[in-house]
Amino acid sequence: MSEAARVLVVDDEALVRHALRAFLSDDDRVILVGEATDGSEVVDTARATDPDVVLMDIRMPEIGGVEATRRIREWNPRCRVLALTTFTTEWQALEVLRAGACGYLVKNSTPAQIIDAIVAAHAGDRVVSPEVQERFVRAASEAGDDHVSDVPALSDRERQIIGLIAKGRSNAEIADELHYAESTVKADIRHINQLWDVENRLQIVLRATELGIIAL
């Protein structure tokens, strides 16, 4: 069994920190190692607690989550930052992802979804809430693309996997639904990344939408 992910929570709302503390402490896959109430405290708290994953609010006084994410990534590029916010606009998500975050969740996510996202981030995956992912896809669809290249050759299984990624399914959920080993699903996703020259699940969905493979 892999080591539990060490988690630092950054949020200016005491009630949110209390709620996160309550359910993070009940799951042995994660360990809450510290809390910060503002972006200005993030790096000092991270130095003291050595987190694997930082749960980062976006809008905070003094220094917001985007700048705090940049600071964390400059301090330790191996530390994963997972944005957790009430905002679902695609530009908010894009801003923090460009700053170095590996994922973007909304605060109405269930405790199980948040913990699964932390575990996935710790394992090196990217995670984006289905609500935000759909906004990205719709924005790409509305922008249009009159010069889409021929669709690269994909297996039927890879097309199924892409469709499930677009629905926000995790690797484990995809494997269970398609009755394949999770390692097979991961290998197929790596192949899609290489074939399309993309780096993460969000880019897979955007490219699949451009190519007309999926439509949301």
From TrEMBL:
Modified residues (4-aspartylphosphate): 57
SUPFAM superfamilies per the UniProt record, alphabetical: C-terminal effector domain of the bipartite response regulators, CheY-like
Segments forming domain Response regulatory: 6-122
Source superkingdom: Bacteria
HTH luxR-type domain segment(s): 147-212
Alphabetical keyword list: DNA-binding, Phosphoprotein
Name of one Pfam family that matches: GerE
Official protein name in the record: Response regulator transcription factor
Organism per entry: Microbacterium aurugineum
